[in-house]
Amino acid sequence: MPENKIALGITEDYVALGSHLIHFWKTDAEFESGVRFLQLGIDNESEYCVLFGHDETNQRVLEALRRTAPNLDNVLGERRLVILRRESSASATLAKIETLFETATRTGATAIRYLGILEMGSEPLPGNGANEVVELETKVTALVHRYPCVMVCMYDVNTVSGHLLLASGFATHPLAVWNDQLEQNPYYDTKQASACCTQEVA
Question: Could you count the other beta carbons within 10 Å of the beta carbon of residue 40?
Answer without folding.
Answer: 17
